[in-house]
Amino acid sequence: MQESRKGLVDLVKAMDCARLRAAPRSTEAGQALVEFAIVSLILLLLVAGIIDFGTLFSQRLELDNAVRVGARYAIENPKLWTSTASPADNTIEGQIIYAGDTREIPNDDAHIAIKYYTYDKVSQTKTYCGYYSVTANAYQTVAGIPQTSCVIPGSLIEITVNYDYTLLTPVLQSVFGATVRVQSRATMVEVK
Fold it and tell me: What is d(CA 108, CA 111) in angstroms, rounded to the nearest whole number?
């Protein structure tokens, strides 16, 4: 009986040792799960940020293209302005808005600016002489230079477009705000 009891005690000790050896494995598995959760969350935020900045960069390229198209159209048609909310594509603003995926840009003075400069070839300086105002639906004179002396061949036309890009990632919104202002500008010499 003594021997069977000793065998039973040995068996219980062996089972306790096996259980103690197995216990750290279950905690290690739980620790790995927690580490995976933390790392995957950080990785997910990183991927979301990359997608957001990629989309922002794509919007910037489309905006640059739209501004160049608008400036190119403006040097041939320097007085084809419009104040309508949905401008026709035969206007400077229409060329800008329909030149890419930029239809969300409103046709107002805060988002589309068309400025005119005289250019002195000798001194290589430009003088700001006027702009088109959507609010007034007319050319506005600056520095006392009339439109007939400003909007002429050889003058410079500068198109500036502002676009408010809405960030997709809430974490980036908390850092940069809900929107990021993207601006593009092109200047060309009037030919007509």
Answer: 6
Residues 6+ positions from 86 with CB-CB distance below 8 Å: 107
What's the pTM?
A: 0.76
Q: What is the Cα–Cα distance from 132 to 157, expressed in whole angstroms? A: 11
Provide the residue-wise pLDDT of the chain in tens; the chain has 192 residues.
Answer: 555 566 666 766 766 665 555 555 556 778 888 899 999 999 998 999 999 999 999 999 999 999 999 999 999 999 999 999 889 989 999 999 998 777 888 999 999 999 999 988 899 999 999 999 999 999 999 988 899 988 999 999 999 999 999 998 888 899 889 999 999 999 999 987
| CA gap 105, 128 in Å, rounded | 25
